[in-house]
Amino acid sequence: MAKLRAAILGYGTVGQGIHRILQDKREELHQSLGLDIEVGAILVSDLEKERPAAPGVRFTDNFDEVLSIPGLQVVFEAIVGEEPAYGYLCRAIDKGCHVITANKVMFSRYHIDLHERAKAKNVYIGYEATTAGGVPVIKTLKNLLQVNSVHRIQGILNGTSNYILTSMRTDNSSFEDALRDAQALGYAEADPYNDVSGMDAYHKLMILSALAFSEQPDRQAVDVKGIDAITLEDVKRAQEEGLRYRHVAEIIQHSNGRLEASVGPQLVGPDHPLYAIEGVNNAVAVDTNYIGTLTLVGPGAGMYPTASVMVEDYAEIIGKRAGFMISI
């Protein structure tokens, strides 16, 4: 039986989810792909920190030890920030490893560079988990773009902001109270800046732009606003008018090819594709030339939605290498 060796970079919520799913689905993946998966090492920043056990797996804080795993073929990256993540993935690709990432901040900046590097080494990059969690927007866009042209993308790309806006409307909560509830439920971090400022959605929008239009707008020119200035009175007034606040990341390609992007609160009515998206759900509405508007909805964050799409990326990559699927 063929054995595939993998490594996981980071063992927080997502890293733990990846390990659990790989163990839970080990037999099923073996049946479908004919491979036995073995996690050879998990990279962490602090070996002394208490964490859930991973029997039979070596924990290390040295990336050289990860690269030295005999037969290493796939690296799952679930750490935070541009560095050292970018450097790690470059080294993994140069070694001939496929890489799968959930790191939206890093990937939004180095998307094109990493793809060019991977192409030169004949390996694949999976990045479904960088954008909209469990919503398969990357796979869907890749399929659409084989025939369709995309004119506009609108998305609720941050579940925390959507939860807060929903709670303010349905529970008459202030922004501060709704944020505290989101933190208590694990939807928001102790430092919620990236969620409520719009920066999280911005990074995801840049990834979608690179895929849909093969380029990004001038990143400095993108108007990014958060939801922290919206009051309960604003939400009530909008509701009286039959409208709802949604935090929307949007990019449009004009007829001359110019890209225009924005991230911020919008008032939307019942005819808008994002009007009915509630709670922590994410949604992406894609306007195309042939099929019109397609809207994808699903859970946008959490251990299993994010980890599961990373494992799906892994299965797709191995399937491609085995000749079961056409190459992207």
Automatic annotation (TrEMBL):
Q: Which reactions appear under catalytic activity for this entry?
A: L-homoserine + NADP(+) = L-aspartate 4-semialdehyde + NADPH + H(+)
This chain's protein is named: Homoserine dehydrogenase
Database matches in InterPro entries:
Asp/hSer_DH_NAD-bd (IPR005106), HDH_cat (IPR001342), HDH_CS (IPR019811), HDH_short (IPR022697), NAD(P)-bd_dom_sf (IPR036291)
Q: In which pathway does it act?
A: Amino-acid biosynthesis; L-methionine biosynthesis via de novo pathway; L-homoserine from L-aspartate: step 3/3; Amino-acid biosynthesis; L-threonine biosynthesis; L-threonine from L-aspartate: step 3/5
Enzyme Commission no = 1.1.1.3
**What single Pfam family name could you report for this chain, choosing any that match?**
NAD_binding_3
Q: Which UniProt keywords apply?
A: Amino-acid biosynthesis, Methionine biosynthesis, NADP, Oxidoreductase, Threonine biosynthesis
Domain Aspartate/homoserine dehydrogenase NAD-binding residues, every copy: 10-128
Q: Which residues form the Homoserine dehydrogenase catalytic domain?
A: 136-313
Similarity field? Belongs to the homoserine dehydrogenase family.
